[in-house]
Amino acid sequence: MATEVNEANFEEIVLKSDRPVLVDFWAEWCGPCRLMTPIVEELSTEYAGKALIVKVDVDNNNSISAQYGIRNIPTILFFKNGQVADKQVGAVAKSSLVNKLNALL
């Protein structure tokens, strides 16, 4: 299951990770976000031990969303070595996320 991160633990979990991190910026009321949830959950299982898959609720974590310029959701940021390495805005096929994650491994 994807880990929920927030303003208190974002730096420790995402920025200090020694593995690539997929960060799903979402909100409960967002229809396309709900479409992406099963895909994100599948990736969290498939990439266990290779990459971290986490979720950030934009309604409860405004400063993280603002810091990374999240204006539309779902937005998925891919981090490597504490830096944004790639980005995906909007609902997409699982294969698109797999390709982006594999490029960071």
What does this protein structure show overall?
With 105 residues, the chain is of the alpha/beta class. It has one domain (3-104): Glutaredoxin. 37% of the residues lie in helices and 26% in strands. The protein has four helices and five strands. The chain has helices at residues 10-15, 31-46, 62-67, 94-104, and strands spanning 3-4, 21-26, 52-57, 75-80, 83-89. It has a five-stranded mixed sheet, covered by helices on one side. Strand 2, helix 2 and strand 3 (52-57) form a beta-alpha-beta unit. It is globular, with a radius of gyration of 12 Å. The model has no long low-confidence stretch (mean pLDDT 97).
- In CATH, the topology is named Glutaredoxin
Main β-sheet, spatial strand arrangement: 1-3-2-4-5
Low-confidence stretches: none
Q: Examine the secondary-structure arrangement and name the CATH architecture.
A: 3-Layer(aba) Sandwich
Number of strands: 5
The end-to-end distance, rounded to whole angstroms, is: 20 Å
Q: CATH superfamily membership, which one? A: Glutaredoxin
- How many helices? The count is 4
Would you list the SSEs in sequence order as H and E?
Answer: EHEHEHEEH
What integer is the average pLDDT?
97
**Oligomeric composition of the shown chains:** single chain
Bin the strand percentage. 25-35%
